[in-house]
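Notes from the pairing session

We agreed to fold both candidates in a single pass and log them together. This is the raw record for the first candidate, unedited. Please don't reformat it; downstream parsing expects exactly this layout.

Candidate A
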Amino acid sequence: MPSSPPPSAGPLIVRLRNWVGDVVLALPMLQRLAAAGFELQLVGKGWARDLLAGEGWPVHALPRTTRERVALLRRLRAEARGSRDNPVSHRGPIDALCLPDSFSSALEFRLAGLRALGHAWEGRGWLLTRAVPRRRGLHEGEVYWRLGDALLGQALPPPGLVHLRTTAAQQQAARELLAAHGIAPGFVVVCPFSGGTWNGQEKNWPGFADFVAGALPGLGRPVLVLPGPGAEEAVARERFASALLLPGVGLGVYAALLRDAALMISNDTGPGHLAAAVGTPLLSVLGPSDPTLWRPWGERVQVLGGHGRWPAADEVLQAAAALLAPAPPAAAPPTPAQPMPR
């Protein structure tokens, strides 16, 4: 990557992606920018504020219409350039970072008068102040990390994991929720839902409902399902009634609750990335998805299936049993040799 001088640290307006997994995978890059002195102003879906509350960054809800989005970006631009604490921020070459690859997101930055960095994609490069190539074949977390390289003018290896912080209030709410249902730490969370498709194919494991009803109870752990509103809650009540359903849980409390889980079993979807980001052991059950591009990023992640193959139920059960098995006791230290009696 050609090096370029890093911009003056100061306010930086960042448009987030529209999916939970993408926002989680971008987190190491965002934390890197904050550590470099940038004052992040994030714009994203309404749930992003709850998800990122532990970081303390301002998160502005993305309006519905283009006119409203441009108005929000213009307001943030005016506030950034008028910041008394950052008198040189208005002279920097870049004052915005566009994580989505859509034409419309780059157009909105241009209409708002922002100097944005983003990927050259969908013929939108001319709308950006700096357009960088989007390399194919990289894990999505590394794609975001390299945008940080481009902005900072310094190429560093990406970290091996994502670290998502939760607030004290979110942690307390998670403890109260579990206590209200009599659930102690060590439970299993399953996420049998997914948003979107992979190349037009469903990302929901076809055997999930039978697995939760028939095989998973044999492991002797409480099983929790935390459906989102609307269709997910209806599906959970119809097909996963054997599990404890906890609907309506916000993403921050969801992440805090996962810290007490012994295991999560998930489709290719956002909550799986949440589990990896808080260090919970994760079985990521994939079918059409390519794990080299989208697997959750963490040290305690095991991927089953993928590249067009769904795992068998026995394969998932064996992996879950192995992860839930108690660790073998540590070997006792050798007894010091006693002197021979005289």
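Candidate B (folded immediately after A)
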Amino acid sequence: MSLRIIFLGTAGSLPTNERSLPSIVIQHRGEIIMFDCGEGTQRQMMKAGVGFNRKMIVFITHMHGDHVLGLPGMMQTMSLLGRDKPLKIYGPPGIRTFIDAITSTVSFWLSFPIEVSEVSVEGVIYDGGDYEVRAVWAEHSIPSLAYAFVEKTRPGKFYPEKALALGVPKGPLWSRLQRGMEVTLPDGRVIKPSDVLGPPRPGRKIVYSGDTRPSDKIAELASGADVLIHEATLGDELLERAEEEGHSTPSGVAKIALKAGVKLLVLTHLSARYSGDESLLSEAKKIFQNIIIARDLEKIEVPLPRGSEEL
């Protein structure tokens, strides 16, 4: 089952020739899950081949312009291209007022309905069927959220030979067992899923920090994550400034990744002061090794956990 991360924008606050403002998408079963929507996101979507009329949900971390000002342009582009599917938008308090202000003051029409939800409490904020999105409060200069995309645990591998040996005929009863439900045979025997299935298969977890200082809450949210995408706005030499402004440095992020036991750390939201990224990478690698620095339009495939492959 394919799960792909696309980095549409990886800059912090100010776009550069190489980096657009913050936005990433996760492609999951034909669905688009977007985190943040900086200016110009719709153009990056075009360049990355991200469709404008698919089922799509947007999660905004906070109400700073570089994370939210791309929404009006993206919505107008979607309308011009004839989108008809609803667009769901989640964000902190203030996101509804922002959307209402745009749609009531800017002269453009929408070809699709918008559903806006303000997030005020931590925990599971969206259930996507086979995945869920969780939120915790980050530590920034204004209220800011961090999000986790978490696939739900799936039933284990189905063993047909065990089902046949127990007298379960091929057909609908097999399907029920594969979905984790008990079945009752004509002779009254109850067959449990554990009788014919292997161990449950864990899903994948991707965590996105938004803007934040290093946070114990984010470390907890990212525990065991396949990918932690974390801002590293300023280098270690500007640690004091980063703390004052509610941002992170590479070393601080690396400590969070180590504490959380993540598989891959991706640094993003880089200040325009850094034309290269080798110094930021080397600072983080003193603490945590499996790190990359995100680049615009880069794509990462996230494989299923070992032993959890599709069958």
